[in-house]
Amino acid sequence: MAVVKKSKSVIKRARKSEKARKINAANRRVLAKENKKFLAVIKAGDKVAAKTAFNAFSSVADKSAKKGAISKNSASRRKSRAAAKVAALA
Q1: Is-above-0.90 flag for pTM?
Q2: How far apart are the first and last CA of the chain?
Q3: Spatial contact of 70 and 31, defined as CB atoms under 8 Å apart
Q4: Cα-flanking dihedrals φ and ψ of residue 2, to 5°?
């Protein structure tokens, strides 16, 4: 097993990384829950509710990207796929 240096900077960096990991995980959980709600509405087939759910999902995806939980491209890709599902209901 490797010996880990315990300097102040290493300890602080580990503390900051753990805090960021928890925040990012929470943001991704919110995004996943919103996606699940959106997919349930799509499965039900209600176009008006689907548009409302898409707007909510899109907002959460943008916020997650802004906070750094997911990349901007990932948010854009998810929104694009969701928009295609809404359009397919027509």
Answers
A1: no
A2: 60
A3: yes
A4: -75, 145
